[in-house]
Amino acid sequence: MNFGEVRFWVILGVSLLAVGILRLPVKCWWSARTDTFDRVALISIGLLLLLAVSWQTFMIYAASALATFCSLKWIMQRPEERRLLGLAVLAPALLLPLFWYKYANFLLNDVAGLGVVSAAGLIIPAGISFYSFQKVAFVVDTIRQRQPLPSFLNFLNFAGFFPQVVAGPIERREDLLPQMERFRFRWNVTDINEGCRRITLGLFYKCVLADNLATLNPPELPGNAYAVWLANLLFGLRIYFDFAGYSLTALGIARCLGVTLTLNFASPYCSTSIGEFWRRWHISLSQWFRDYVYLPLGGGRSRWWWAVLVVVFLVSGIWHGAGWSFVLWGAMHAAFMICHRLSSKRIQLSALAGWLLTQASVLLAWLPFYEVRPTVMLTKLQSLCLPASYVPERLRALLAAMDTRQQLSIALFLGLTAVVVFAEWRSLRTEQPYRHLMHSWVLIVMVLLMAWFTPTTSNSFIYFAF
Questions:
Q1: CA-to-CA distance for 421 and 462, rounded, in angstroms?
Q2: Where are the alpha helices (DSSP H) in 30-95?
């Protein structure tokens, strides 16, 4: 479900129109069943959109949802003292499809060198990383908190709510399930107005900023520190505006339907510490790791808190992708977090110094995230650490490697992103993320920019691959 494609909006629009037409006789003749009709219609739209992605995506999601519900129902019928044992079996079992499609090739062929042909070339089903984690959290919360099992229909809507099933946010039982249980197609003007503002901002982030940043293609100069930093900056901005754009669009669509989702990003590039960055970046995933990995292992109160942080960030890196580069990315952020915790009480940085250090750390760590060629990545890392890589001649070499049009394009979109990040920072001062970017006149400008700058070919959302 690519929100940047016209096909998605056509399917959604036709589906909602069909629901509206069918709902009229139901409301007139079977008014007592209108609530059931609405919830059936909602999951039907979600399944149709998953089917439009691919048969594989649809079948794997449907099998996973059915297996989760049936297994959990069986566990809930057992004596209470045996439910934790069932949880210990079911939670890992829910991750087996994720492990097979995402990690089988890496573990069996790259690590073990077994040459398993069936594991090579596996296509990761859309959304499997996200809905697998959401179902694990649902199972854990239901059993540990002794919550009642919802109806199968309500569970399906919770596990497959179409705005967020493919790329999050990863929702919790206590936040989303009650909304699914009382869901009705009620078109509230206030909700639609707020939702459309978020959709517009999200599509601007994706179509104007992320998609254009993806086309800039800075020159490949591994030994040139300026070229490496530029590539890191462009990728770091691209992945943010790409994923935040998806999340804001998902929030907007859900809000139009009267459903409130978790804000997944809160202007992370305005952070003045690495700890603050991780409170603002991919918030629902960070909270998932905090509640289901970090705290159960002892959290910050553990004597081995640094080891707990390493485990959390290594797992986070592996979640993002099957490869040593993602492990390195997680290890780098673990090191940043450990250094931050050890130094924060001894060294007090100004807001500007903290912001510069945080951005440099984050941008440095993006290198193994996008550069999967080990030798090239090591060359680039080495260039960033050598003072000789920063001589003026290297900067002139970078400029000489780009023509005037490329220089102007990079300057234009870096300038535009600087304006957007500044507006985000101003919004944070009001404790309302993105507030200044959702004024009516700003949104009108964004629509005009989308009409002018949206590339003719749409890029898939980066996190669809995760």
A1: 20
A2: 34-53, 55-76, 80-94
| Helices 96-104 + 128-144 axis angle, to 10 | 150
Q: Which residue has the tokens 């250090």?
A: 357
- At 176, the pLDDT band (50, 70, 90 cuts) reads very high
Could you tell me how far CA 32 lies from the centroid of its own chain? Answer: 39
Crossing angle for the helix pair 392-400 and 225-256, nearest 10 degrees? 60
Q: Is residue 195 part of a domain?
A: yes
**Helix 55-76 × helix 34-53 angle, to 10°:** 130
Q: Are 288 and 233 in contact, with CB atoms under 8 Å apart?
A: no
**Nearest partner of 98 among 311, 321, 312, judged by Cα:** 321
The answer to whether 8 and 49 have CB atoms below 8 angstroms apart is yes
The Cα 351–Cα 272 span in angstroms is 6
19-52 pLDDT, tens per residue?
Answer: 888 887 776 777 667 788 889 999 999 999 988 8
How many Cα atoms are found within 13 Å in the side-chain-facing hemisphere of 92? Answer: 5
Q: What is the pLDDT of residue 230?
A: 94
CB neighbour burial string for 396-423, b if at least 16 within 10 angstroms, e if fewer: ebbeeebeeeeeebbeebbebbeebbeb
In this structure, the answer to whether residues 250 and 166 fall within a common structural domain is no
Number of other CB atoms surrounding residue 265 within 10 Å: 25
Could you give the C-alpha distances from 225 to 236, 320, 362, 464, in angstroms and in order? 16, 26, 16, 30
Q: How far is Cα 129 from Cα 57, in angstroms, rounded to an integer?
A: 12
Residue 387's identity, in one-letter code, is: P
**For range 406-417, the mean pLDDT:** 92
**Mean pLDDT value of segment 440-459:** 86
Do 132 and 41 have their domain in common? yes
Please enumerate in sequence order all residues whose Cβ is within 8 A of that of 139, keeping only pairs 6 or more positions apart, or say none.
68, 72, 87, 90, 91, 94
Same domain, 229 and 375: yes
Residue 438, CB-side half-sphere exposure with 13 Å CA sphere? 19
pLDDT band of 121, cuts 50, 70, 90: low
Q: What is the mean pLDDT of the chain?
A: 88
Q: What is the pLDDT of residue 119?
A: 58
136 domain-assigned: yes
Is 145 in the same domain as 199?
Answer: no
Q: What CA–CA distance (Å, rounded) separates 296 from 289? A: 10
| Residues 372 and 436 placed together within one structural domain of the fold | yes
The enclosing H or E element of 208 equals: none
